[in-house]
Amino acid sequence: MLHPNQFQVNEAWIVFKVNDEPIHTEQDGDFNFLALMDAASCFILGTVPVAAKFAGPNQVESRQLLAQGNAHKMQMPRTLFVPTEQPAQFLVAEAERVGIEVIRVEEHQLSVFIGEARVGFREYFGGDGGAKQKISTN
Question: What is the pTM of this model?
Fold first, then answer.
């Protein structure tokens, strides 16, 4: 199992879906939120909403997420961990395009990194065991 003490800051990033159930907006429909995290510090470098009707982030969303991460240290990591369960065709392509090695891993191997972020997100949005949350995009 992977652990933060195996990495130096900005050596590896992790992308993951932070919500359990889609978040509902009255104006734009349902969204999932992808987070980008530094593996050593577990610091969230960025997030991007992805329409729930799509399997994963599109090219623009993928570029935005990686740019948010890059803005913190002005450099890209060597490695990006992506859960095998997360559809991420464009994200993988964009990461590889900028020279990042992408490693697909089972999501349970990332639980020590992403567990607390998911709990915090669930608490913030009231995570009531599966009911869609409603937020305004205004």
Answer: 0.86
